[in-house]
Design goal:
Number of strands: 11
Largest sheet: 9 strands, mixed
Mean pLDDT: 82
Shape: elongated
Distance between the termini: 92 Å
Radius of gyration: 38 Å
Helix content: 40-55%
Order of helices and strands: HEEEHEHEHEEHHHHHEHEHEHEHH
Structural class: alpha/beta
Length: 381
């Protein structure tokens, strides 16, 4: 046997082994890579988050929090959607970033207005919310408002009508029962005054009538008294308690009554657009729009008299008022222009991911998770 034969045999074995490995790679690995079932890992979504909008979305202590943020976190976990957060400082910049494809999803309580529907792509709405007006309540103004309500012509007419009605019933009773019995040894004037007082106040009515007609008149005075008392309670509740409390620097009963005032609103927000639309109606005194970088700065603007009122999301102002402990602040208008709120989506986001997001929102709403997250965010300090 030649000494070269073992070497040739080893080379042949190595070549054979290499051929087997190459064949296995061609038959198994390459076809599997081309199979449609071998899906690539899902892409990491770029999620823009609106900051400074507590309790909806805010960045504190190096972490994002808020009802909209927690809703997205729950949704992403259930749907296995990897993502990274990217901050945005205003609704305008977040909407613009989504429209330009700079972010795949914009998270915040963004109002789905008619103007925005034609320009941006939104997810399924997850809640309904409106606007509110926050003002600084002036104690002197509050006292003056109460005094004005107490001296209002309507209240004076109501009291005057009651006294006249009781006076007429007292006169009829005086005639029916007879002055000699009713005056009880006193003069006519003092006797009639006593009858008037008893019918007007109630106690003692069982002692002044002895005839059937007299008792009927006592019943009439009772009906006049309870009807007038009900009207007085309603009037005082509405005009002396609620209305003065809803009076800040000036009474505000509608958004139109913000005319001539300095109103703070976040740039690019629905609140800002609402104020601009009101000014475009040709108001005699235009509203001065004061930029509000973050909702929590509303307290500072009002305290330093740099704004007369703040217009923002009802939920945000309620949260601010609840946790500020400032009793000089008052929400005078609530739930104005109620609209749906949703996430904004990039036009480049694939339809399958959009459907997963919408289905998850619908499921979490049905399970009560959305409402629970909102309550939790409102109560969190």
């Amino acid at each position: 046997m030649s000494r070269h034969q073992p070497q040739r045999k080893g080379v042949l074995q190595a070549a054979l082994a290499l051929g087997v490995l190459l064949l296995a790679w061609l038959l198994l690995i390459v076809p599997l890579a081309g199979q449609p079932g071998a899906a690539a890992p899902p892409p990491v979504l770029r999620v823009g988050v609106l900051s400074g909008s507590a309790p909806c979305s805010d960045h504190r202590g190096n972490r994002w929090s808020g009802s909209a943020v927690e809703l997205w976190n729950r949704l992403a976990i259930e749907e296995s959607l990897p993502f990274i957060f990217e901050p945005r400082d205003s609704a305008r910049s977040l909407l613009a970033a989504a429209a330009a494809g700079e972010v795949d999803v914009g998270v915040g309580c963004l109002n789905v207005t008619p103007e925005r529907i034609g320009r941006y792509r939104f997810s399924l709405p997850f809640q309904e919310m409106g606007l509110a007006v926050l003002v600084k309540r002036d104690r002197l103004e509050l006292g003056q408002a109460v005094l004005r309500s107490l001296l209002a012509p309507d209240l004076l007419r109501l009291l005057g009508g009651y006294l006249v009605a009781i006076g007429l019933v007292s006169g009829l009773l005086w005639v029916v029962e007879g002055p000699q019995r009713l005056r009880d040894g006193q003069g006519h004037r003092r006797g009639f005054a006593k009858v008037f007082q008893i019918l007007a106040t109630g106690p003692g009515t069982n002692t002044i009538a002895s005839t059937t007609r007299g008792h009927g008149l006592v019943i009439v005075s009772y009906l006049v008294r309870i009807v007038t008392a009900s009207l007085l309670v309603s009037y005082i509740t509405i005009n002396v308690v609620q209305e003065p409390r809803a009076s800040g620097v000036r009474p505000i009963r509608s958004l139109q009554e913000l005319a001539g005032q300095r109103v703070a609103a976040r740039p690019g927000s629905v609140s800002s657009a609402t104020l601009e639309r009101l000014n475009a109606t040709g108001m005699a005194e235009p509203i001065t729009v004061v930029p509000l970088p973050r909702v929590e700065l509303a307290l500072q603007l009002l305290a330093e008299d740099r704004a007369d009122a703040v217009l923002a999301d009802d939920q945000q102002l309620e949260y601010l008022l609840r946790h500020s402990g400032n009793r000089q602040l008052e929400l005078v208008l609530r739930n104005q222009q109620s609209e749906s709120q949703a996430f904004v989506l990039s036009p480049q986001l694939d339809r399958a991911t959009e459907a997963r997001i919408d289905h998850a929102i619908s499921r979490l709403k049905q399970q009560g998770v959305v409402a629970a997250l909102r309550r939790e965010a409102m109560n969190k300090s």
